[in-house]
Write a structure and sequence with these properties.
- The structure holds two protein chains of two kinds.
- Chain A is an alpha/beta fold.
- Chain A has three domains: about 120 residues, 3-Layer(aba) Sandwich (Rossmann fold), CATH 3.40.50.720; about 130 residues, NAD(P)-binding Rossmann-like Domain (Rossmann fold, 3-Layer(aba) Sandwich), CATH 3.40.50; about 90 residues, Alpha-Beta Plaits.
- Chain A contains 15 helices and 22 strands.
- The longest helix of chain A has 14 residues.
- Chain B is mostly helical.
- In chain B, about 65% of the residues lie in helices and about 0% in strands.
- Chain B has 20 helices and two strands.
- A two-stranded antiparallel ribbon of chain B has the order 1-2.
- In chain B, strand 1 and strand 2 form a beta hairpin.
- The chains are: A alpha/beta, B mainly alpha.
- Chains A and B meet through strand 2 and helix 2 of A and helix 7 and helix 8 of B.
């Protein structure tokens, strides 16, 4: 499969990296020579150092043979026009544009095939939705949701005093009654699929898979109280902050938004009469005391400055705010932030990449979640009628070693965590985890040969 | 630094080399050359034993990504390893009794130089001659490129390796995946070899000669199986076929791929190619004028010899059809200048490369424009594309380093008591991977007269030249090994 990407920014690079690891042929168009050089020396893909809206550039990049075109340049208009050029000059089946401006992305024109764009991804909307979902579930961990099921996946960073520390998975299983799985652990920036003898250590980032109720119970049993998150601070009233406010204020929560730009505050107060809008710098030392911010349940830091997001979240927690959620994009910061006990970390980059990947793989694949900067993916997919695995036991299916079937959903909310003797049927939905290198292999072994 | 992965890939590479040794072993069996057969089999078993044990021992080590530094070290190590092992059959069978000589001959083969220490080539067993030419063929497109094409899962590491090995500033990708690019380049290379072999068969060579000379040509190597090189056949048809293929091998193989698959509208846009053909035509014309009526009577003979020799020196092949040292001095002078040029980037040729010469000349011209128009803004363009300043700097740095190493090498040769012409051209011909020089290392003589320490140093110069200076030299710097 040939994928053509316009723009090698943070999202373009991450997307290319995940697709290259899956074995797809990726070509990137990037106009900045320095960035182009960086990408071509870090990814096994072709990099064309040209401006993205020239017809000749697309020809050179092999648009005539591309199966999908993803435009993630910095400017919305460039992305839309690029899709327009590609769809009028070449026969590329899938065209995806990143459009930040909500006035555009909400417009109905895209549903009618405007400029040939098949899918519009709005990173701010994706991120804000992700944040709203996380808050709805208690904001005590990163949450991965799947369609049509109560099963969820959440993570947990193990600290010294944690229940999980220095116990093997077998021991943990004996003490916890609920059904759950530990499909993967991130230890020292590498990804492990653990066995029963695996001993959890301090600073491990462990992922748990179970139904929503069981997960909440497990979190409670292991010493994490679930909090009612009624009073929320949103630090940073930019696009993401205001969208998060819009989603959360509908649920009747009390919201306080802090922004340092007066004009932003003004328009926020016009849009959200029920919210308290503060014109202040979040790093101002008097602010927390004056406004009694320490008594809040949750702080969501959504400024454009990642370092400030992390620091503010940590600071607020140290003062007594019960939960903290921070917006962090750089992957090396993600691991630091989770060690600093920020409860949940949302990355606009990962949300955008996941949304694009989900659209690219649409069809049998229902949802895609990248774990730890794309090191592994959790995929949800449906067994179609022509799949080779129908009627076979799980233990008889040849799957790549670095992958695991976590759960099978059959019919309405009948989910099971299967053993090797489980026989798959048509229409089952599988949730599986797979190392980045073997995604294509897994797709091949579980789906029919039409990929 | 990633020692386990480096060892692992190195072991794979050596196994590939050992695999290719089966071919001359087969020829030894066919011609019942028992001592050669024995030495090839011994070396194959030796390599397979060591590498097999290493791979078995390291099989459970998880492969991490190869860093840029690892790439330089791995490429340098694999070329030295291949030459050390490749020299063993010559040495064990007694075909070349001294190991220094055997190593010189092998690295001259892998680096596609074609400089020899053999006074009488024709007494060598057939299998040894075949192995000698096969080293050219393997070194031409590059053993590491072959490994990247064949070994799966190299990913971005493969790019580091190919960049460290391939001639020219950077590898020209023709597919998104570097392994596919490597595969296609080898396929084009193989195609040229097959085409030339068939043409030489039609022109009257036997299969063995056609194959070995094709290896020498497409790799721009220059080992012949005859003492008089291509001059032995005394056939205009053979000379012309080899001239054409030498010229083709001196052109970027990714350009060949684009033209062959119709992906390029017009190769005429390529500045480097235009300059390359221009240099060849001008040199041929100059030599023809110089030697016509003196060395040769007929204009056709003069032109064929002039074109052959010009192509041979320009592409750094080093085949000869005549003893050009008996030519008038003007013709020799042109050949001497061609030794500084080399082929195009991305080809199998050595030398400075036309691309760098073009950039330096254009930059020199722009400097003049700046003097005329102090407020002017001028852009350096090659093939219609803007050349960035850092590339010009790196080319200038490369050229200076090339000349510097050349002078140092000349000094080492001169220290053994040889005259200036011999010393300088011996250095130039080894560093540029050409083959014959002038004076005591001229076309009718060879490198056997040099003492061992000079042979070792020239072997090093050939390796440095083939890997485009930096790959080998940076491994020798303390900075490379420091943990900073």
């Amino acid at each position: 499969m040939n994928v053509l990407i316009l723009g090698a920014g943070v999202v373009g690079f991450q997307l290319a990296q995940q697709l290259v690891n899956e074995g797809k042929n990726v070509t990137i168009i990037e106009k900045d020579p320095e960035r182009a050089k960086y990408v071509s020396s870090h990814l096994d893909c072709m990099v064309i150092n040209e401006n993205g809206t020239h017809l000749s550039t697309f020809q050179e990049a092999g648009a005539s043979e591309a199966d999908s075109f993803i435009s993630v340049a910095d400017i919305d208009e460039v992305n839309m026009i690029a899709c327009g050029i590609v769809s009028s000059e070449f026969r590329v089946p899938i065209k995806i544009a990143r459009v930040r401006n909500a006035d555009y992305s909400r417009a109905r024109i895209f549903e009618k095939g405007f400029l040939g764009i098949d899918y519009v991804v709005n990173p701010e909307v994706e991120t804000a939705r992700h944040i709203a979902n996380t808050v709805a579930l208690g904001a005590d961990s990163d949450v991965m949701l799947f369609e049509n099921t109560e099963i969820q996946m959440r993570n947990l960073v193990v600290d010294q005093s944690s229940f999980f520390a220095n116990r093997s998975l077998k021991q943990i299983r004996k003490t916890i009654n609920e059904k759950f799985l530990v499909p993967c652990v991130i230890r020292e920036d590498s990804f492990v699929i653990p066995s029963g003898d695996f001993v959890v250590r301090e600073n491990d980032n462990i992922y748990l898979l179970a139904t929503r109720k069981d997960l909440t119970r497990i979190f409670m049993e292991t010493g994490r109280k679930s909090e009612r998150l009624d009073r929320i601070i949103i630090a940073g009233g930019g696009r993401i902050g205001s969208l998060v406010c819009q989603y959360l204020i509908r649920t009747g929560r009390k919201i306080t938004i802090i922004d340092s730009v007066y004009e932003n505050c003004k328009s926020l107060s016009e849009r959200f009469p029920d919210a308290l809008v503060l014109h202040a710098d979040v790093s101002d030392e008097d602010l927390f005391e004056e406004e009694r911010l320490d008594s809040y349940d949750l702080i969501i830091t959504t400024t454009n400055n990642e370092e400030l997001n992390i620091l503010t979240a940590v600071y607020a927690k140290s003062l007594g705010v019960k939960r903290a959620l921070a917006l962090v994009t750089k992957s090396n910061y993600v691991s630091i932030a989770s060690r600093l006990k920020i409860d949940s970390i949302v990355s606009p980059k990962v949300s955008t990449v996941d949304a694009i990947l989900k659209f690219l793989r649409r069809g049998n694949i229902r949802s895609v979640h990248s774990i730890f900067n794309g090191m592994a993916e959790v995929l949800e997919f449906k067994i179609s009628g022509d799949s080779p695995v129908i009627g076979r036991k799980i233990m008889d299916i040849s799957m790549p070693s670095e992958s695991l079937i976590l759960s099978v959903i059959r019919g309405q909310e009948q989910e099971t965590i299967p053993d090797g003797n489980f026989v798959l049927e048509e229409g089952d939905t599988l949730i599986s985890i797979v190392d980045k290198k073997f995604i294509a292999d897994l797709e091949k072994s579980l789906m029919a040969g039409r990929l | 630094m990633n020692p386990f992965l480096i060892t692992k890939i190195l072991a794979f590479l050596m196994l590939i080399i050992a695999g290719f040794m089966l071919l001359p072993a087969g020829i030894a069996l066919y011609n019942s050359e028992m001592s050669s057969l024995f030495s090839f089999l011994a070396v194959i078993l030796f390599i397979a034993g060591i590498c097999g044990a290493l791979l078995y021992g390291l099989r459970k080590r998880r492969a991490e990504a190869l860093s840029t530094r690892d790439g330089f070290l791995l490429v340098t190590a694999s070329w030295i390893g291949a030459s050390l092992a490749g020299a063993l059959p010559f040495f064990i069978s007694g075909a070349i009794p001294s190991y220094a000589d055997a190593f010189f001959e092998t690295i001259s083969g892998f680096s596609t130089t074609g400089a020899t220490i053999l006074t009488d080539v024709e007494i060598l067993p057939r299998s040894m001659l075949f192995w000698r030419s096969l080293t050219h063929w393997l070194g031409g497109m590059g053993i590491v490129v072959l490994a990247v094409a064949v070994l799966p899962m190299m990913g971005i590491g493969g790019l580091q390796l190919i960049n460290a090995e391939s001639p020219g500033p950077a590898v020209d990708r023709i597919t998104p995946r570097i392994a596919d690019t490597a595969k296609l380049l080898w396929i084009v290379y193989l195609g040229f070899t097959v085409a030339q072999t068939s043409l030489l068969l039609i022109a009257g060579m036997d299969l063995f000669d056609a194959l070995t000379h094709s290896f020498g040509t497409v790799a721009t190597g220059g080992f012949s199986t005859m003492n008089a090189s291509v001059g032995h056949y005394n056939s205009a048809a053979i000379s012309i076929i080899i001239t054409v293929f030498m010229l083709l091998a001196g052109i970027s193989f990714s350009l060949h791929f684009r033209v062959l698959t119709g992906r390029l509208d017009s190769p005429r846009m390529n500045t480097e190619l235009k300059a390359y053909i221009g240099i060849f035509l001008a040199a041929t014309l100059a030599i023809t004028i110089g030697i016509h009526g003196d060395a040769y009577d007929s204009l056709f003979d003069s032109a064929v010899h002039a074109a052959f020799q010009a192509a041979s020196f320009l592409t750094t092949t080093g085949f000869t059809t005549a003893d050009f040292e008996k030519w008038p001095l003007f013709g020799q002078g042109v050949l001497f200048l061609l030794m500084f040029v080399g082929g195009c980037s991305g080809s199998t040729a050595g030398g400075v490369k036309v691309f760098r010469i073009v950039i330096l000349l254009k930059q020199a011209f722009i400097e003049m424009l700046y003097l005329i128009h102090p407020r002017g803004i001028f852009t350096l363009k090659v093939s219609g594309r803007i050349v960035r300043k850092d590339l010009v700097y790196s080319v200038a740095g490369f050229f200076f380093l090339y000349i510097f190493i050349l002078l140092c090498t000349s000094l080492v040769v001169a220290s053994s008591g040889h005259d200036l012409t011999t010393s300088f051209t011996a250095a130039l011909t080894t560093l540029g991977n050409i083959g014959p020089g002038f004076g005591d290392v001229g076309p009718s003589r060879n490198f056997s007269i040099l003492p061992d320490y000079v042979k070792w140093f020239l072997s090093f110069a050939m390796l440095v030249g083939r890997l485009e200076l930096y790959t080998v030299l940076i491994v020798l710097t303390p900075e490379f090994w420091s943990r900073r």
